[in-house]
Specification:
The protein is of the alpha/beta class. 36% of the residues lie in helices and 25% in strands. It has 7 helices and 13 strands. The strands form 2 sheets. Strands 7, 8, 9, 10, 11, 12 and 13 form a 7-stranded parallel sheet that branches. A 6-stranded mixed sheet has the order 1-4-5-6-3-2.
Length: 248
């Protein structure tokens, strides 16, 4: 069954109004009609089974048939702070981060980032990245649409990220897998987590030192050097495995 997302202000009792591009997709692309059923999520833990009750030029009205809380979201909120790689890589990273359970992706400009964007390009890229996040959320049956934030410089991103309970920065010169394993195993469900991933050229040593001074823990991803599009997925996969297992 197809999945769509709606804002909470679109819910009126047992009736939900879907508008905009989703309404167009339902009636003009999928060609669904009155009586067909879809899933609707409203950016929370609830999943609504709905039946299409009315279709107009600009809106699709659905009636709630059933509501469940299937527990598909991870018990911890994970934000991926991704230093900007080349364009196609960032799109892949966002897609996979959403599939793996991140609730937010923040693009970051660090010292070794190759990509340089003016304000107009920043705006258009963030808009596209959010569209990719929404499509990935629908495909992976997420209960929320993770946000792709505005592009931040390294210092501002650190300041924001340190508000999380656990802050991780993979770095090839960190202590090793034993220390990383102990750190990962100590993370509790419910704790908020920030993961900082460097660009193609990696972090400068001064950046890692600055992050550690702000409370970040440097972690090892093993003896192999991972590409920027692989490193974040490695960390998210490990966190998802550990947290999902502990929440059962």
């Amino acid at each position: 069954m197809y999945r769509f997302f709606a804002d909470k202000d679109q819910v009126n009792g047992s009736r939900i109004i879907i508008s905009g591009k989703d309404a167009h997709h339902i009636k003009d692309v999928l060609r669904l009609g009155i009586g067909d059923e879809i899933y609707v999520c409203t950016d929370d833990e609830w999943e609504y089974t709905c039946e299409i009750s009315n279709i107009t030029r600009d809106e699709v009205s659905v009636s709630v048939v059933d509501a469940t809380r299937p527990g598909k979201e991870l018990p911890s909120r994970i934000t991926l702070y991704q230093c900007l790689p080349k364009r196609e890589k960032m799109e892949l990273i966002i897609q996979k981060a959403v599939e793996l359970g991140a609730v937010r992706v923040v693009p970051v400009m660090s010292a070794r980032c190759i990509v340089k964007l003016d304000e107009k390009k920043k705006e258009s890229r963030v808009e596209r990245w959010n569209s990719i996040a929404e499509a990935a959320a629908k495909q992976s049956k997420r209960m929320i649409v993770p946000e792709v934030g505005q592009i931040m410089n390294f210092a501002a991103a650190l300041k924001e990220a340190k508000q999380n309970d656990v802050c991780l920065i993979p770095y090839e010169k960190s202590e090793g897998m034993d220390a990383t394993r102990d750190l990962m195993n100590g993370i509790k469900p419910g704790q908020s987590i920030a993961v900082f991933i460097g660009p193609e050229g990696g972090f400068e040593e001064q950046e890692v030192e600055l992050a550690q001074n702000e409370g970040f823990k440097a972690v090892s991803l093993g003896k192999r050097i991972l590409r920027t599009e692989t490193a974040g997925m490695f960390v998210l996969s490990v966190l998802g495995f550990l947290l999902d297992d502990r929440s059962r």
